Amino acid sequence: MFKDSCDSDSLTAGILSQDAVASLLSGSRQGNLYYYDSVDSTNNILKDLASKGSPSGTAVIADHQTNGRGRRGRSFVSPSGAGIYLSYLFKPQNGFDRISDITALTAVAVADSIKKAYGLDTQIKWVNDILMNRKKVCGILVEAFSDGTGKPVDSCIIGIGINVNDAAFPSELSEIASSISKENDGKCFDRALLAAELISSLDALGNGTSEDNYYLERFRELCITTGSRITAFPQMTEQGQGRNGTALSVNDDFSLRVRFDDGTEEDLRSGEVSVRGLYGYT
Ligand code: BTN
Questions:
Q1: Which residues sit with their C-beta closer than 6 Å to ligand 1?
Q2: In the 8-state DSSP scheme, what is residue 54?
Q3: Helices (H), the chain
Q4: Ligand 1, residues 141, 199, 233, 273: which to mutate, most atoms within 8 A of Cβ?
Q5: pLDDT-based confidence at residue 100 (cuts at 50, 70, 90)
Q6: Is 108 helix (H, G, I), strand (E, B) or coil?
Q7: Which of 23, 60, 68, 238 is in Cβ range 3.0-4.6 Å of 42 for a Cys bridge?
Q8: Could you tell me which residues are beta bridge partners of residue 99?
Q9: What pLDDT is recorded for position 236?
Q10: Residue 268 host element (H or E)
């Protein structure tokens, strides 16, 4: 499952390649899988493929991104040889109401993939971060995709960035971000194995192969935001005055029930929530 170090001459465990990922998938699943050594953003490459008619389930994986995008207009640091940068085209059979629903389902799919590939537990910070030991090891960015014909939007690009093995992060991120390796004594993990598990878990979302309530129950089980003191920012930015409160629960539609300090209660469906005790927020 892992080698002791990514620095030794047995780097096999750390290598991510089309062949390595495809060999772990069934023959019929090996199509519509695109691998690149370096791209600006896998979400951009996949948008281009989607606009040319690629089917649901098409996936783009890269070893390195020069312009990885995060939420709130942030960049997502994507060094080579360390992470998995994956975008997946998702066209649910019955469409979708909210991007945040897809984000929540994806968070569960990522957590389950890490568990299956490496046997490791993670937590979810509502609604799109995957944590290990309360540090971020994965971010999710889901973008609606429109083919430009004016038809209702029925597709989205699920972008997942996972810090798997060790890489140097900018010092300002060291309080927030970590890698699976760093949180596990510097061990080197097999990226292809996790990439293949991710694709299988995302395929399961589309096939509806899990019980209806599975994702909601699992999200609630893993979500560490519930019960925490939070600051909510209504826009997708942390600028401006946030509102302090306590996160009470995750509703059936994955929105977050919050009791604010002025006594009012609201269900948050979008925006940003900082959790006290996480990411250097005291
Ligand atoms: C976040 O934490 O704000 C979301 C980060 C999402 C990063 C992934 S990496 C693969 C895909 N391509 C991108 O440019 N972004 C997403």
A1: 41-43, 65, 68-71, 74, 76, 85-87, 139-141, 159-161
A2: P
A3: 18-22, 42-51, 99-118, 191-207, 214-222
A4: 141
A5: confident
A6: helix
A7: 60
A8: none
A9: 53
A10: strand 265-268
pLDDT in tens, 167-182: 777 777 777 889 999 9
- pLDDT for the residue numbered 13: 59
Q: Which residue has the tokens 């030794």?
A: 8
- Structure tokens that stand for 257 in this block: 């029930």
Which amino acid, one-letter code, is at 268?
A: L
Please list, in sequence order, all residues whose beta carbon lies within 8 angstroms of the beta carbon of residue 135, skipping any fewer than 6 positions away.
176, 177, 178, 183
pLDDT higher than threshold 60 for residue 214: yes
pLDDT band at 209 (very low <50, low <70, confident <90, very high): low
Residue 229's DSSP bridge partners are: 246
Higher pLDDT, 46 or 234: 46
Mean of pLDDT values over 223-245: 84
Give dist(CA 119, CA 124) in Å, integer. 16
